[in-house]
UniProtKB/TrEMBL annotation, chain A:
This is YCII-related domain-containing protein. Residues 10-117 form the YCII-related domain. Gene3D superfamilies: Dimeric alpha+beta barrel (3.30.70.1060). Transmembrane segments: none annotated. It comes from Lentzea alba. The lineage of its organism: Bacteria, Bacillati, Actinomycetota, Actinomycetes, Pseudonocardiales.
UniProtKB/TrEMBL annotation, chain B:
InterPro entries: DUF6596, RNA_pol_sigma70_r2, RNA_pol_sigma70_r4_t2, RNA_pol_sigma_r2, RNA_pol_sigma_r3/r4-like. Residues 102-152 form the RNA polymerase sigma factor 70 region 4 type domain. It holds the Pfam family Sigma70_r2. PANTHER family: BLL6612 PROTEIN, BLL6612 PROTEIN-RELATED. Residues 171-263 form the DUF6596 domain. Keywords: Sigma factor, Transcription, Transcription regulation. Belongs to the sigma-70 factor family. ECF subfamily. It comes from the Bacteria. Residues 375-407 are annotated as: Disordered. This is RNA polymerase sigma factor. Residues 6-71 form the RNA polymerase sigma-70 region domain.
Amino acid sequence: MPQETTQQYLLSIYQPDGEAPPPEVLDPIMANLQALNEEMQAKGAWVFAVGLHPPSTATVLRAKDDDVLMTDGPFAEGKEHIGGFTVVQAADLDEALEWGRRLATVLSPLSVEVRPIVSE
Amino acid sequence: MIEEIFRAEYGRAVSVLTRVLGDLDLAEEAVQDAFTTAAEQWPVKGVPPAPAGWIITTARNRAIDKLRRESKGHEKLAQAALLQHEPEEEVGDVPDDRLRLIFTCCHPALALPAQVALTLKLLGGLTTGEIARAFLVPEPTMAQRIVRAKGKIRAARIPYRVPRDADLPERLKAVLAVVYLIFNEGYLDKVGLEAEAIRLGRVLAQLMPDEPEVWGLLALMLLVASRREARLRDGEIVLLADQDRSRWDADLIAEGQDIVRRCLRWNRPGPYQIQAAINAVHSDPPTDWHQVVALYDQLLAVTPSPVVALHRAVAVAETDGPEKALREVDALDLDRYHLFHAVRAELLTRLGQDPTAALEAALDRAEHPAERALLRGRLAAADQQDHADEHDQHDHDPQPGRDTTGL
């Protein structure tokens, strides 16, 4: 469909709970990730990217009546959690999926979820 | 008359309007409005000289009216104004509009059932209710499936275009799979779906004439459909060797075989072309079983699967005897598949052994009433018979894709 503007997409990285891999495994992955981020920047696709501390460091807040309840730990306990995310801008889903594919390849075997961001 | 034009032109009109309006829902609504107007006017004023063009122009004008009428903000007014000033030829049929629509409907980011539903709805003009009934899904479920898929196309910006060359082979595979799935859903009943799949196959062949697999799929569907009238008798499946050949459709066979010959000259084989070739051999009795085995070898090389191996074994029974075929069948991990047990039963019978257990296993797993009727008949025959003198050759209708209908 005709579109002049770009659309932003959230690329969430899902990883299994538990210990991170040892440096000899992790280091080359992080180097590849860095290279991909730089390529996204060079092509004008990169908007924002972060890595997150493990879910055990999370705190959940929920307003109830006049109070805000606070709980230790992630919102949902699962076998996987979001380990980080990248926001890209792209002309359409195909372009965003191409970046997602690259990200998933660098981070293999982790899953990458691509989701459009609501624009104003 | 209108019904015919609707069937033939609905998809084209929606695809053109989608390009012009940039929105699937608006396009669909406008085309439906135009057909409603046609139903009112044509019986009185007569059918216009170019009905398809009339539908598209009327739909476009309706869409502009609607945008004007409903516009509350500047944006929609601007959109309506923009539409009005577009050069006239923009409304014409750009040859690949329908291709764009097909590739959008069959985008791999959509789940297969959603791809199928969208294709039938937007290109075939089937109603949500018709699609729901065809796939035995409650209508609200189907409506939700379609709304969700359209919402994803819009929000995630699934593009409205033919994929670039590098992506085309994979994307085309997905499109052909959707068409073949629609065809298979219509295999034993629901003639409408079978006809719709063939119609889509013809459109694809017309729009992508240089893709041999597109032709292969069309030929496969034509050849399988040619036996439709002979395939069922009193609600029971009639096996290929027992079919009344005078009830085969000679025109479909001729067309299918012609395409298969053209594909052979092309020499760029693929799974659909090979399956079409196998069906072409069967359409030319007596079946040359050596050729069928050779074709299944080729098919196995490109799509290794135990189901294909099972079908190959049926042909091996004819060339090398049931004993060798049974050895090959027994090596396959297909316990869940009713045809595996049905083929075993047949081979056991021909070897003079008791097929009862195999038939019961097949009956346990078969779902379609016509297939169950056939198996029950076999079971009854096996019960009363000392199976000494059965020499019939019973091959099943060769359509290895049948089990892939995973809806």
